[in-house]
Amino acid sequence: MSIVMSKKCACDVCGSANSTPINCLTTYTAGQEVDVCRDCGFVFVSHRRSFKEIADSWSHEIFANGEGEKTQGELYTAVRPAIRARLIHILETIDQELGIHGASICDIGAGEGVFLDYVEKLKQPSSVFAIEPSDKNCELLTKLGINNFCGTIEDYLSSSNHSSGQFDIAVIQWTLECCADAKDMLKAAWGLVKPGGHIVIGTGSRILVPFKKPLQFYVSAGEQDTHALRFSAKSIRNILRLSGFEPIFINRYIDNDIMCVIGQKSEIPEHVELERDDYNEVIKFFERWHKESKNHYANWVDD
């Protein structure tokens, strides 16, 4: 399905409009551009649809529980062992660093409820709550006995259901990179978290680290704005600080498939001194990844 690019976005981290395409990636994206910011080194898709259109693609095309239309590739599901494993990794990291016993937890983009189901079965939270745009996934959440709101976080904040400072911990797992505006999502999460509470981000560790998969398994043809944001350790810390969360923990992401960052709610700052990735080094990194994938893994396919 082709899309109409409705908006050209500046860098989500520093706000600069000075970005350049990473040319080697067009081999995998059917010519569509993925940019790197010349000012801070953040990797992002600059042309995007609205958050509602992107959420709709996830709900009805990508994350459709095997019942939706399969437009390209495989439908996404969190019930696979590898994905369950990374959710357990995040769960145990939260418990080790913050403690879950007696805490209220909100999962933003909760999917099929696998994570919150583990939280309830393995830990002792005071409450769990899911925000999820897919109606099919919300049916699964309800069957699991998990309280949920069917819609995006933006929809939730505009509803009568929410109140400020509801939760001790907000969790965003493999979702921040898939939204239309990361700062909007994080600022919304800031409003949901209690003073002194925490946000936990789970995402892939891919940029400026050892290669962990062939490049064709990281970027591919299709609607690029469904995975519009590609975080490094510096860029995820930057965007947390800009949104009023002070990073207090990051895992050993250098040799781990997962990057997990925890931020504590603080005041939203007027200015942040950004950590910057050199955009030339980012481009060189992807060129090396492209060369390695082409020379050694070009014919690799999933069994």
What does this 3D model show about the protein?
- There is one protein chain.
- The chain is an alpha/beta fold.
- It has a single domain, classed as Vaccinia Virus protein VP39 (Rossmann fold, 3-Layer(aba) Sandwich), CATH 3.40.50.150.
- Helix content is 30%, strand content 20%.
- It has helices spanning 51-62, 81-97, 114-122, 135-143, 153-158, 182-192, 233-242, 279-296; strands spanning 7-8, 19-21, 35-37, 43-44, 47-48, 104-108, 127-132, 148-150, 167-173, 193-204, 229-230, 245-250, 258-265.
- Strands 8-7-6-9-10-13-12 form a 7-stranded mixed sheet, sandwiched between helices. A 4-stranded antiparallel sheet has the order 2-3-4-11, covered by helices on one side. Strands 1-5 form a two-stranded antiparallel sheet.
- α6 links the parallel β9 (167-173) and β10.
- α2 crosses α3 (114-122).
- The longest helix is centred in the C-terminal third of the chain and has 18 residues, at 279-296.
- The protein is globular and about 50 Å long.
